[in-house]
Amino acid sequence: MNSNIRLGVTGALIAVFVIVAVIIIKIPYYIESNGLVKPAMEWKLEKTPDGLIINTLRNNTNNTLPHFSTTEFQRGDHMSFELHPANNAQQLIKKGDTIATIYSHLENFKLLELERELLDNKQQKIVLLSGDKPALVNAAYQEMLLAVSEFETQQKLMERTESLHEMGVVADLEYDLARNEYNIKKQQVNITRANYQSLIEGSKQEEVALIDARISALHGQIDNIKERLEAFTILSPIDGQSLVDLNRVQENELLAHIYGTGEMAVIMPVEMSQLRYFGEGMKILLDNGLREEILVGEIKLISNKAELLNQKQVVFVSSLIPNSENTLKPNMKTKVKIDTGEISLFQYIMRLVSTIYRN
């Protein structure tokens, strides 16, 4: 009898101890997955088959494009592209460093023409204010005659192009270009005729105002071209390194590709059943297999879209991890653990049973 009592007490104590241990003892709970390493920020400069230059800055942490722009060159423009020789895979690149220069012969020619026209107008204003009006009137008359001659030539060309277009011989684009040129020549006749009339009929004040208006318009056109030419100097928008991809096969021609080395994004799938156990801001532990030290990062974004992977519903999780020693490289595969914190042994057992049951 006493023996049975002792056994019962011992069993009860053991049961109490086990229950207390299951409730009190805390153990870490990790969610494991496989991650893909991407640059947190990367910048590409590409040329399409039809000649467009595409400039994209991508944030891989949230899969967005903070910056996107295209540069289109006019038909017939001779363009040259010069990549800065110092940009190689070994050298670190700073934000604002010159990566490449694009040279447009047509844009530079336009700039020279406008600057020469601006100088002519300034000289005309000086002559007008000095009282030497006959010379100015004669110059305006000659300019008007030249504009009329060019318009008549363009008018004949337009009539012929229009006839060929109706016959289907000339393409729509060529016809539109001819009509635009015709309208420009016609407008130039009106401008030069008005200029000449103002010189022979108007007062000096009106003449000066007309020249000032032309000078102001030319300044605006020159500034626009200079801004466009400045945009042809390609600067790096991020700190990083040039990415050399010897296995790249894409339609567009890659001119430059820079990725930020300071931080890397890790994209990983996590089963939807685990969603309730973790959230943004939690730590991740990354083992890249190249060093003993475990790298620590932080969850930045959890997708709200379900995907099917290996017959399981998952969501993709994006994390950010420091890469000061540049040990992580783009497109690396790595083992990742999400540190959800400590839970009781009872909770751990219940989660383990739930996972086994679902699988």
UniProtKB/TrEMBL annotation:
Q: Give UniProt keywords alphabetically.
A: Coiled coil, Membrane, Transmembrane, Transmembrane helix
Bilayer-crossing residues are: 7-31
Cell compartment(s), UniProt: Cell envelope
Family annotation (InterPro entries)? UPF0194_transport
Per the record, GO CC terms?
cell envelope
Source organism's superkingdom?
Bacteria
Signal sequence residues: none
Name used for this protein in its record? RND efflux pump membrane fusion protein barrel-sandwich domain-containing protein
Q: Which organism is it from?
A: Geofilum rubicundum JCM 15548
